[in-house]
Amino acid sequence: MPELPEVESLAGFLRERAVGRAVAGVDVVAFQALKTVSPPVTSLAGLTVTAVARHGKFLDLDCDGIHLVVHLARGGWLRWRDDLTGARPVRPGKGPLAVRVRFAPGDDGAAPGFELTEAGTQKRLAVYVVTDPAQVPGVAGLGPDPLAPEFTPEVLGRIVGGSRTQIKGLLRDQKVIAGIGNAYSDEVLHAARMSPFKIAGSLDEEGVARLHEAIVGTLRSAMERARGIAARDLKSEKKSGLRVHGRTGQPCEVCGDTIREVSFADSSLQYCPTCQTGGKPLADRRLSRLLK
Q1: 62 three-state secondary structure
Q2: H/E run at residue 100
Q3: What domains lie within the chain, and their CATH numbers?
Q4: CA angle at residue 278 from 272 to 284, to 5 degrees?
Q5: Inter-residue contact 59 to 52 (CB < 8 Å)
Q6: How open is the CA angle 192-195-200, to the nearest 5 degrees?
């Protein structure tokens, strides 16, 4: 799933290529992806992209005050096309294509655009056409952005204070902190040297400061790695930069211990026992506790 660093990189990618271009049309192939009816998606035709923003994991294209807001979900991605002239007409079907956004031809005669695709059978990619991004329920309920200046250790301390939630789950809750998902929560906790099942409210002042540093440092580092990379290459770049997530059975780059995994019904987490749990493996079952 694209998380804050990748979505911010996609936003930067589109700022360079889409801002200032007129929308020729938006073709919706996967009708379940379009979550709004007013304004109609056809209202985007003829408008100019004036800005591109990110809200948590949401991508927001401002088209003369009408916003095309996208959430790529688990299997979604954005594919830029330098020229859609002659592209096959879109037809509903079983392929990965969900939405195609076409721009008017430029001075060179090329008509660029981008396509939103979604792999897998669980179709969760979502597209909204709104006059205000806050009209999107997921955007309206977002917690603070962890890279905003206002996200201080004191703010994080108030977030975790008294919480009985395990820290892994808290980091992934978009209503608590915006933009962190399964992969970067693993990376943050490894950097902070914390068990994913540590209770958030048990953190002392030093632990909160260490977690804050790990959140900001991990996300900023990932953003720097992704800066300037073409959209098509972001997935592989993300994977190559991860130190624990998705690396079950491999040696930890910090201590050399073997990266372990805890599996759930629809996801899994990875961690280093030496770095995070005092050398003790976590039981591989839901609501795991340290093995005695």
Answers
A1: strand
A2: strand 97-103
A3: 4-140 (3.20.190.10), 153-276 (1.10.8.50)
A4: 55
A5: yes
A6: 85
**pLDDT of 151-198, one tens digit each?**
999 999 999 998 999 999 999 999 999 999 999 999 999 999 999 999
Number of C-beta neighbours around residue 178 at 10 A: 24
d(CA 282, CA 72): 31
* Sequential DSSP letters for 2-45: --HHHHHHHHHHHHHHTTTPBEEEEEESSGGGB---SS-GGGGT
Q: What is the pTM of this model?
A: 0.92
E strands in 124-225: 126-130
Going by pLDDT thresholds of 50, 70 and 90, the confidence category of residue 289 is very low
Distance in angstroms (rounded) separating the CA atoms of residues 11 and 18 = 10
**Percent of the chain surpassing pLDDT 70:** 97
List all residues 6 or more positions away from 89 whose beta carbon is below 8 Å from its beta carbon.
none
Q: Mind listing the pLDDT tens digit for each residue in 15-45?
A: 999 999 999 999 999 999 999 999 999 999 9
Torsion of the alpha carbons at 240, 242, 246 and 248, rounded to the nearest 10: 110
Cβ within 8 Å of residue 31, ≥6 positions away:
92
- Give the separation between CA 16 and CA 12, rounded to whole angstroms: 7
d(CA 20, CA 90): 25
Q: What is the arrangement of strands in the sheet containing 113-118, beginning at the earlier edge strand? A: 23-28, 97-103, 113-118, 76-81
Closest by CA position to 163, among listed 123, 126, 211, 92 = 211
